[in-house]
Amino acid sequence: MTTLVKTPKGLHGEVLVPGDKSISHRVIMLGALSEGETKINHFLFSDDCLSTVNAFRDLGVKIDIIDEHVIVHGVGFNGLEAPKHELQMGNSGTTTRLIMGILSGQNFSSELIGDDSLSKRPMNRVSEPLATMGAEVITTDGHLPAIVNGKQLHSTNYQMKVASAQVKSALIFAALQANEPSIIREKLPTRNHTETMLNAFGGKIVTSEDQLTITVNPQPRLKGIDLTVPGDISSAAFFIAAGLLVPNSQIRLQRVGINETRTGILDVVKRMGGNIQLENINRDGEPLADLVVTSSQLTATDISAEKIPAMIDELPIIALLCARAAGTSTISGAEELRVKETDRIAAITEEFKKLGIDITEKSDGFVINGSQDWHVESSQLNSHGDHRIGMTLAVADLLVDTHLELAGKESVSISYPDFFDDLARLI
Ligand code: S3P
Fold first, then answer.
1. What is the reported pTM?
2. Which residues of the chain have pLDDT under 70?
3. For binding phosphoenolpyruvate, which residues are annotated in this chain's numbering (predicted)?
């Protein structure tokens, strides 16, 4: 148990939010599959992204880390080497699912293992669509450990069953190694970093105007690039909420990625009456902006399925905004939360009830009656080993006078190792 930081009179200052997790994973993977060097600035040195770095090192790729910069010495699609032992995925769903797509088309076999949480998460959502290309991913009842027997793959024309950028990206990586172009159709648009980054590395991925159909042209020759990773809006989200909810606050979040497949939280906050200004917008490559957040009185909102992919990782902290807003909010169509690092619907409900929040658990989301006046029922909070639950509860702690404790605080290192230091600097 560790005591959380205690409640401030207002939050003030600037935060350079750490690099985007999704982009950090992908730049290592694409750099490895390219020819030449990929030089990365503002890489996210968190446990999850280091799982990707270590996995590619185990596949024979030289990756240097010099003064906070990362240099990937690309080997091309044919240059990966069979690993000498199991590939350790740690807690990282993104590493696991994307690498399955990459390894499916190689000429060797690999075994993937992960921690307890990752070993409970569904992997058949990747192995089954990959099988339509002739891939052989043998899971343990749909979970890790899994063996990927690399094969020559053929093209696919696949209608996705879940709205998941990880599944889509696994299919894209496999389709790049197939003999003919593949078509992947999404239910709802999900984050498009794999597609945009692949094209920056020299690939030829075509996305339809409605963003739902992706054509992957195979066998590209990718060339290494220099990339500065934008700040992660999913990490910025905790400071957005803190700035809105702690009275008398104004915070500047610098150089945050505002790719429109990720900015659902900005739309929700605006609908709820929150004051966020975008400044210094830069649209060369992945779009970026400084976000200036000012304390606001929020009103309730309704969030349904079609909006979920653009804010999937922000839903725990959005639920906290709803818990403070005037009126009744609903979040529905978010059943994917049940298969994240923990069952986030159950974890949020359990922890919010301890805080005295009026929340009702639904199979696919929540109903939350917002209030400025919570009566804390238990001071013993728990992150459930989930970084985003831990950070959500740390923001909640700023709003109550009761002394709270948070078990599993260290889980923030999955995506934001310096979270508590950055928060303390604003107080
Ligand atoms: C991610 C996609 C999302 C997200 C995860 C990162 C990615 O997962 O929740 O944190 O980088 O592709 P799903 O694809 O399971 O929705």
1. 0.97
2. 1-7
3. 21, 93, 121, 166, 344, 388
